[in-house]
Specification:
mainly alpha; single chain; about 425 residues
């Protein structure tokens, strides 16, 4: 063998034993296993010299790469991110985050503003007018006191005026709550049905939604009635207990009564938040799954189990955001109506303007509060089913079929039935 400096030995054919013939690859030994280590080959003619190889390169079948592969594959080289989730409607068909829920609720309002905002405005107006009338009557009385402060002493002796004032102030609020009990319950059902179709990118009119919801009205009222009982019973017990304690303590026990009332209010706040979170999905379940009132509340309790704090946090954050926006919209009108009512007392026109302004402020605030809270509750319900029942697979399969057909069929409403869940 040559040391690389002298001329290589010639073969009988005239070619060097270490130099391959022109236009051909060096012959590989038939006894060399693929990947076996051999001596490094000299650098081909015309190729620049690089750094010397630290280890001999294995010869395998096929051409060899000039650089050894990196021991760890880097992102970007052969890495493919997962495809985005299918999104035929207002939400992606996968478990939802907070941003998806809020964005989907806004898209629900924007996708069908006539049905959503129109119905919400009617419901808000019906609930705001009784309160506005009662407040305007009270403000008219207060305005008379501001004009003649001495009339406060004479009017205080007039029992009939006091009864009218109390009846106007609290009667309007009571009537407003009764109207909300009826109107908001129906509105929640209609909005939930619109949401159920908007998830697939379909739209539905208010009339069509009402035709689908009217059969579920008794169950909806059953849910609201049971929620009212759950919330009112401990409140009544608390008030009766405070009255009993007040009757049995001496005149110097006012501090004890106030402390007991404060403690009860703290406990009741936790009680209220706990049960409203547990039964937050009862109304969507009544409408979308077709269950009865008690069964819907039981299923809502089951869906919230395991993710209580997340559901509670999203609902609480939604209430704060909606309350802030509603306050910004309603406060200017309410303040203007209050000033008109107080400083323009005795004038029918001023009273009417005060009622209109207060009612307008309440309507603007509530017409956004109602659909936003209903939308968040409905999308949270869908999210919990995706996470606990793999419901996103059902929705994706249906959405692919609907895309193939080119339209959203009314049978999409039946997909919400729990029998269609991938993991019941």
């Amino acid at each position: 063998m040559s040391d690389g400096h002298g001329p290589p030995p010639e073969t009988p054919s005239g070619w060097s034993a270490e130099q391959p013939p022109p236009y051909s690859a060096p012959p590989a030994s038939p006894w060399t296993a693929p990947g076996a280590q051999q001596q490094p080959q000299p650098t081909p003619y015309g190729q620049p010299y690089g750094e010397p190889l630290q280890q001999p390169q294995p010869l395998g079948p096929g051409p060899q790469t000039p650089y050894p592969p990196h021991p760890h594959p880097q992102p970007g080289y052969g890495y493919a991110p997962p495809p985005p989730a299918l999104r035929p409607g207002i939400i992606p068909l996968r478990p939802l985050g907070l941003g998806d829920i809020l964005d989907g609720t806004i898209k629900l309002i924007r996708s069908n503003p006539k049905a959503v905002l129109g119905l919400s405005a009617v419901a808000a107006l019906l609930a705001s007018v009784p309160v506005a009338v009662g407040q305007a009557f009270v403000l008219d009385t207060m305005g008379g006191v501001l004009d003649d402060p001495e009339s406060a002493y004479t009017s205080s002796n007039d029992g009939l005026t006091s009864v009218y004032g109390v009846a106007a102030q609290y009667g309007g609020t009571l009537v407003s709550y009764m109207v909300q009990f009826v109107v908001v319950t129906l509105l929640t059902g209609v909005l939930t049905r619109i949401l159920g179709r908007a998830v697939f990118g379909g739209s539905i009119t208010a009339r069509e939604a009402w035709q689908l919801v009217k059969g579920r009205v008794p169950a909806l009222f059953g849910v609201v009635a049971m929620m009212a009982v759950i919330m009112l019973v401990p409140l009544v017990v608390m008030v009766l207990l405070i009255v009993v304690v007040a009757m049995n303590v001496s005149s110097g026990g006012a501090g004890v009564i106030l402390g007991l009332a404060f403690l009860f209010m703290i406990v009741y706040l936790g009680y209220y938040l706990f049960f409203t979170t547990r039964f937050a999905f009862a109304s969507p379940i009544v409408v979308l799954e077709g269950r009865g009132a008690i069964e819907s509340m039981r299923r809502s309790w089951h869906l919230v189990t395991g993710d209580f704090w997340r559901v509670f946090g999203i609902l609480l954050l939604t209430s704060l955001l909606v309350g802030l926006v509603a306050g910004v919209l309603s406060v200017p009108f309410t303040l203007a109506g209050t000033l008109f009512g107080m400083f323009g007392a005795g004038s029918v026109a001023t009273t009417v303007v005060s009622v209109v302004l207060i009612a307008l402020g309440g309507t603007l605030g509530s017409m956004l509060t109602y659909p936003f809270q209903a939308g968040v509750a409905g999308l949270l319900y869908a999210d919990r089913r995706m996470r606990s029942e793999a419901f996103d697979l059902v929705l994706q399969t249906a959405a692919i079929e609907q895309q193939r057909q080119g339209w959203v069929h009314a049978s999409a409403d039946e997909l919400w039935h729990p029998s269609n869940s991938a993991r019941p």
